[in-house]
Specification:
By secondary structure, the chain is α+β, with helices and mostly antiparallel strands. Helices cover 55% and strands 13% of the residues.
Length: 516
């Protein structure tokens, strides 16, 4: 059997570990340990399980076991600090977390070439970034094109929700005329990003296109042109632009694929994908359906961290937006689900960011929540979600300046995100605390234009208008608050959570005439 994960092929028949076409040296005992973890990847294996399987029950010290685990991590490009593939769960055991594809032995000119086995496409969005063509006519510029691909690959790989083929495998196609469908088949990915770089007269032009491999359909294409002043800043700039554009496009394409599947064929991941557009609607009914679909996914896979986080946010929003029939139940569910999400992977930026927001609204442990939010953006500085959640956390903690900076960074990450109305409304709330009322109105109106049934936008406008003495506009916005949230009272709003440090916002709501 050959197990494929990332750019590695783990061949149990030949007892070899390959990274691309290269054989990775690995001691027999370490091979056996890795073999056992991969074969039992669906569960946590205990220390005793490993000792019985690898050492035949002989006495082994904790230090010896730790050493072998660290060697296995090193052989697969992992580390004890990152634990991307081999996770240690204190007092419980160990688990292999990598996305594994199984392939039977196939004949081929190079036994170590994992690409010949046509690996299965993973459930989650999978992408390969092919080497960009150097159109400059200057062989010395090849390094720039290759560096651009490496930067984009690294940035995409920080999204744990994506399966990204490593550079070494993608670069086996360098300099070759490729058929995108064949690339997708050989690498086991659904999407391929290809591009070209042209440098001339102090400028660089980069063209990119995202293609669905199976059909050859173009999902997205764009062109970027920049001055050649600082080459590293240029790479960062283009990487951010490309990643910000294609990451949401991947999920839009995945959602479209999921909606075409028959209900009896749905998996936990399909339920997750179907929950997302309902979640974005932000109505009482949409949120209820998103929560229902998320719980369907959790029934199939109770350790699905992303969907646990999504369901937790849904229950939190029921409380914060005044939709909850039983707020205490919703609050308990939100906290339970955030803990479940963290227990699956507390080193994932998506999970950390979401958990930080749920905790900020439902618990209020500012120090812990800021630590989680900061760690999320450190793990993936290209994530809209991480920066947006950090903005919420800092606003709730009473640090509006840092909140605004985080929200503005989030908008730069994803300027067309489906939930930007929440970001603009929160920017407005933070700006009110900074007494920047005119700017708060601008932000509130942007949120209103994107979602005219979003009460938070009208609360922002009512408060800002009231502080400026624009009473007629304040009363009009207050009326829209009550239209979208008929049971709204200021005391109930404060009790929902997340606004104890929003003194000026609340003062403005009182001035606007909203009921106490």
């Amino acid at each position: 059997m050959r197990y494929l994960f990332e750019e590695y092929a783990f061949d149990t028949n030949r007892r070899e570990l390959h990274r691309g076409a290269e054989v990775v040296p690995i001691a027999p005992q370490v091979f056996d340990l890795l073999d056992y973890l991969i074969r039992n990847r669906e569960r946590v294996v205990s220390k005793d399980d490993l000792i019985n399987a690898v050492w035949n029950g002989r006495s082994v010290s904790d230090a010896a076991l730790t050493t072998r685990l660290n060697v296995a991590r090193s052989a697969t490009g992992d580390s004890g600090e990152e634990q991307r593939l081999i996770k240690t769960l204190p007092r419980k055991g160990f688990r292999f977390l990598g996305q594994v594809r199984e392939a039977q032995e196939v004949a081929g000119p190079n036994p170590g070439d994992a690409l010949e086995s046509a690996p299965a496409v993973p459930d989650k969005p999978s992408i390969a970034v092919l080497p960009f063509a150097n159109m400059s006519g200057d062989p010395e510029q090849e390094y720039f094109a290759d560096g651009m691909v490496e930067e984009i690959t690294t940035a995409l790989s920080r999204f744990k929700s994506l399966f990204v083929i490593a550079r070494n495998s993608s670069f086996t196609f360098k300099g070759k005329a490729v058929d995108i469908k064949e690339v997708g088949r050989r690498l086991g990915v659904r999407y391929v990003l290809e591009g070209a770089v042209r440098k001339a007269s102090g400028k660089v032009r980069i063209t990119c296109q995202l293609i669905e491999a199976a059909t050859g359909a173009h999902i997205w294409a764009d062109r970027f042109e920049r001055d050649m002043t600082d080459i590293f800043a240029l790479q960062d700039d283009v990487t951010l632009a490309v990643v910000s554009a294609i990451q949401p496009k991947l999920f839009q394409a995945e959602i479209a694929i999921s909606t075409r599947r028959r209900p009896e064929n749905l998996t936990a991941y399909d339920y997750y994908l179907r929950a997302l557009p309902q979640f974005y609607v932000a109505t009482r009914e949409g949120l209820a359906e998103a929560i229902r679909l998320a719980h369907c996914a959790l029934e199939l896979d109770p350790r699905f961290g992303f969907v646990a986080a999504l369901a937790g946010i849904g229950h939190m929003r029921n409380v914060v937006w005044g939709y909850a029939i039983d707020p205490q139940f919703e609050r308990r569910e939100a906290v339970r689900l955030l803990r479940l999400a963290l227990s699956t992977n507390d080193n994932d930026p998506h999970t950390l960011a979401t958990a930080a927001v749920i905790s900020a609204f439902m618990v209020g442990d500012c120090e812990s929540e800021i630590e989680m939010a900061d760690r999320a953006v450190a793990l993936n500085p290209n994530s809209y979600l991480a920066w947006n959640c950090r903005g919420h956390v800092y606003r709730i903690a009473g640090l509006p300046e840092e909140a605004v900076r985080s929200f503005e960074r989030a908008i730069r990450m994803s300027p067309v995100d489906a939930q930007l109305y929440t970001t603009f409304a929160q920017i407005g709330s933070a700006l009110i605390e900074l007494r920047r009322f005119d700017e708060a109105i601008v932000a509130g109106k942007k949120a209103q234009r994107q979602n005219r049934s979003f009460a938070t936008a009208y609360r922002c406008l009512a408060s800002a208008f009231a502080h400026l003495g624009r009473d007629a506009e304040a009363r009009e916005a207050a009326a829209r608050v009550l239209e979208t949230d008929p049971t709204f009272t200021i005391s109930a709003f404060i009790a929902r959570g997340g606004y104890s440090n929003s003194k000026l916002l609340i003062e403005g709501l009182r001035k606007a005439g909203l009921p106490e």
